[in-house]
Structures are given as C-alpha cells and as structure tokens.
Amino acid sequence: MPAGGTLAPSDAVITPLDEIRVRADFPILERSIRGKRLAYLDSAASAQKPMTVIESMREYYAEHHSNVHRGVHLLSEEATTAFEGARDTARRFLNASLAEEIIFTSGTTAGVNLVAQSWGRSNLGPGDEVVVTTFEHHSNLVPWQVATQQAGASLRVVPLDSHGALDLGEYERLLGPRTRLVAVSHASNVLGTVAPIAEMTAMAHQVGALVFVDGAQAAPHFPIDLQALDCDFYALSGHKLYGPTGIGVLYGRAELLSQMTPWQTGGGMIQRVEFEGSTWAPPPARFEAGTPPIAEAVGFAAAMDYLSRIGFQAISDHEQTLLTYLTEQLETVPGITIFGTAPGKIGVVSFGLDGVHPHDVATVVDTHGVAVRAGHHCAQPLMRHLGVSATLRASLGLYNTRADVDQLVVALGDARRRLGA
Ligand code: PMP
C-alpha cells in the first residue's frame, strides 16, 4: 500500500484479519444494548478499546504512577520512561524522523489550535491566505478562521467534485504567492474521501506554503508515513485510534517547531523564569505546559502497538471488503441517498432516507442495538454544500463484521416502516 496513500485493494498475499479473535479483544462488544447484540458502527466518532489498552492503563496506575520529568525517585523515573517511550512509539508509528517532533496534546482539536495560534500569530499577516477544503471538520476550520481574522488574512476553500473528491485543478488555482498554509483533512469524517496529501503538499511547497494535515480520520485506517507525505504538521486523536480519550499527537517539522512560540505557558515548558520574563524549553516540552496525560500516553502506545501487531494491510483489506458490502446493502434500502463516492474512500458512509429526519432514524436504529451517528458531524459548511441539514453516518472499525451491517439494514427497514418513509 502506498505510504499514507490510497486504499486500492491490494493483490498482494495478505494475512486476513481474524474477526473472531479481534472482536474478543474488545470487551464492550459483548455488551447487549436494549436487549440486542451491539452493532457498533460509530468508530469515526470514537473507537472502542481493546483489553490491552485498558490493562496497560490499569497497570500504569497500579504500579508505576507519579509525575513525569520532575522527580528523581524511582516511580517518577518509571513514569517518565513510560511517557517518553510512548512518544517514541508514536514517532515509529507515524515514521517521523525525530521524537522531538512529536508533541502530546489532548487531541486533534488541540493540535490545530496550537498551530493556528502559535504559528499563526507570527506568520500570518494582512492579505495572507490559508487554504482549507469544503469537507473540513469544524476543528480544522474554525481555528484557521479565527487565526486569519485576527491577522487580517483570509480563507480560500477548495471545492469538491460530484463524488466528494477534492478538485485538484481548483486547488492549484487557489495556491499562489499569498498562500501561507494549506489546512486539509487526510480523510473526511463525513464523505470518507481520502485527500492525496503527498501530491497536495508538493504543490503547496512549490508556492512556499506550509501544509497542516488533520489526520483524525485517516490514522485508524491506513499507515501514516510522515516522511513520505512530507507535510509540515500532522494532528491526530488517540481515542479514534483505539486508544484513550484526552490524548493526541501533533507532529511538527523540527525546524518549524524550534521557531514557534508557546501556545500555553506554565510549568514544564520553560528554560529560565525571572519576574521580568522567561525563556522556553526546546520542543516538544515547549508545547507541553503542565502535567501531561501520562496514563493516556501509555494507553495510546498500547493501542498503536496493538494496531502494528495486526498490521494495516489486514485492517484496511478487512475494512475495504466490509465497506463494499455495507455500500451494496445500503443501496438495497428504498429511498436511500449515499453522500460521498470517491474512489479509495475509508469505511465511513453518510446517507439519508427520503422523507425522514436522520435523528429519528438513528433513534429507531438504536432500539435494534445499532449505534450510528446522526447530525451535521461538525461539518456544517459541508452539509450546506450537500444541501442537507444532517445525515446518518455508519463508520467501520477493524472489529466490525457483516453481522453488524446486516443488523443495520434490518433496523433501517424497521425505521422506514415506523416512521412512514
Ligand atoms: N477532525 C476530524 C476529521 C474529525 O473527525 C474529528 C473528530 N470527529 C476531529 C478533527 C476532532 O477530533 P477531537 O474531537 O478528538 O479533537
């Protein structure tokens, strides 16, 4: 599979994912929901956690916890080793060249805000432009809107084609001498579209612009090779990657991070403090003020190790096969419209049913034990582009099976009957 690239089905010999074993790794999947088997089709909002993640955090708290970086006692050393070990796991997982380029944040949203404010304050000025796309999540849109407004700069928006893919011709036309940065999602949380990041980055770099990638939806589905993508910043969330909530990674190119001023200040991020002023620690500490999410870093590292053990080839092959099945099955439901049909999309399917509100459908579907999401998915401009106020969304994770899809389709049939669609 190309690095951080497309999801074209591979013809290589692969180890198929062992569905039964994988499902057994996730204790929550044994829960019954409203008396029914749980069909969890909401991993794009947050993925469930394998036992290894839960256990790693229990063990950390039961045996190793203390604060990091400050103590000389054994527990503090152990906590520091675990925390910095997690940073190195993230570096390897993302193929960044240096551990110093990995900043632990509370999630993707925090990573975007950090760069929009820290980098934006000193690099955006009147007349400058930041390029975003029509399918950005509010988290990778509103912080850029605020930063450009603060600087007297403006946003330019890359349009979509009828399948929900980015119009690269228009993208090229939008890039110019005023473009300072391109902010783009690696994969859309609504349409599932995968953006060609390496290509877009090369085009942006040609005009001297930086590239910020929101990898919240991409990282759970295919390997991210930061050196191959060559982007300047990359943000993701642990909880979408089968890890805990409250932690994420912001990758930043070392030479950029070293020139950036802190976003939050306080303990742990300084070199020297005087009443008159302070100097900053080098990255990553400069961007990690206060006590970091230590147990969460441990759990996140366990999640990345878990995914690496299974292997992204097996994960994406499994999810792509299931995505085809899900799409085919949904197309059998009368009155359905699927939003987003770009080739190589991830296992995220947004859809509407004629004549009924997505929230009502999701409520009926829940009575069947099926968890899907309904709403604007934090992408209101995209909803406007699609001409709807909300959609239903079924999203796949590595633990989903055909049984989950079948349960959804039965539940949708029931919703249509009950809601008079
Ligand atoms: N970007 C995208 C594409 C997302 O799907 C999400 C989560 N829905 C976010 C950013 C925000 O992630 P978090 O809430 O973990 O910060």
Could you describe the 3D structure shown?
With 421 residues, this protein is α/β, with parallel strands linked by helices. It folds into two domains: 19-42 and 311-419, Aspartate Aminotransferase, domain 1; 55-308, Type I PLP-dependent aspartate aminotransferase-like (Major domain) (Aspartate Aminotransferase, domain 2), CATH 3.40.640.10. The protein is 39% helix and 17% strand. It has helices at residues 19-24, 51-64, 74-94, 108-123, 142-151, 168-174, 197-206, 226-229, 254-257, 294-310, 312-331, 358-366, 380-386, 402-419, and strands spanning 32-33, 36-37, 39-40, 102-105, 129-133, 154-158, 179-185, 210-214, 233-237, 248-252, 270-274, 277-280, 336-339, 348-353, 370-371, 373-375, 391-395. The strands form five sheets. A seven-stranded mixed β-sheet has the order 4-10-9-8-7-5-6, with helices on both faces. The radius of gyration is 22 Å and the shape is globular. It starts with 18 loop residues before the first helix and ends with a helix. Residues 1-14 have low confidence and may be disordered. The protein binds 4'-deoxy-4'-aminopyridoxal-5'-phosphate. 4'-deoxy-4'-aminopyridoxal-5'-phosphate binds at residues 107-109, 137, 139-140, 185, 189, 214, 216-217, 237, 378. The site of 4'-deoxy-4'-aminopyridoxal-5'-phosphate (PMP) has 13 residues, from helix 4.
